[in-house]
Amino acid sequence: MPELPEVETVRRSLTEFVRGRTVTEVSVRDATVLRGQKIDDFREALLGQTLPEPRRHGKLMYFPFKDRSLIVHLGMTGQLTVRLTDRADTEFTRHQKTGLQRTLQHPPDKHTHISIGLDDGSVLHYRDIRKFGRVYSVPESQRDDIISRFKLGADPLESLFDIQYLWSGINKRRAPIKAVLLDQKFIAGLGNIYVDEALYKAGIRPGRGAYRVKKRESSALHVCIKQVLIKGIEAGGTTLRDFVSGVGESGYNQEGLQIYGRYGQECLGCGHQVQRSTYAGRTSSWCRVCQR
DNA sequence: ACCTCGACCTGGGCGC
DNA sequence: TGCGCCCAGGTCGAGG
User: Fold this and answer.
1) Of the candidates A29, A267, A16, A5, the residue with the CA atom closest to the CA atom of residue A125
2) pTM score over 0.85
């Protein structure tokens, strides 16, 4: 689920409902995603805080308070949604692009690990089936502090990620280009889906050693990475199974995927059978004709 | 320093 | 209907 476009979708959809709201209640049902933080400390740190507009760097979303931040990483199946008091628990709303869509607003269930009550009666729910996600309350509030704490590389939609940044980061690495692009310490925000899409669009095989990517190809890849991410955001994210926005809506980028998950099928570009390989432990789909 | 792999979790899909 | 197996978008630490 949540790569950069999905996290950005959650961030945008939550903003209008949480900005300026004050935390009045914090309940933790399962502390797994707190990763060792004491429940009482976590609760005390949040109570009374006023939520600002959430921010994002890569796949990390955070709420910077005055002297600390609430940080949320959705892992593989994390969902951060707001349950509104004036909305029925299940109802249809009009999605910007897809038209009528059922939203997922429901009471806490066995996967809803953390609930943060706000002063207007709404509740921010963190739900995570596989519990690979994490929720932190950290003393830092400056964005640079948070990025360095998690050792994150450049966010591909920010200016630090330019042609030179990409080129200098890949031209000496021996690992497959696929593995290098997945490295969050280098580029923060790409995951399996968008790396496959970007490499296909750029015509580069995922298994090629990063150092064997030519400068020209690197420049093309730089554009393609941004394009597939922006397209993903405009589509409201990719929903393969669990992903929903902050108000429970599915994305529809899955309908526009060109190569991810299409192994065994015909390549949309040339008709040859899409290949499947594993790099850095992740399944990759690629076309031996369209990608070199 | 770089790179790969297993572990962490639960649930869905498929074959039998 | 049930069981076993494989697979899944992420990250971290161990070990080569």
Assistant:
1) A29
2) yes
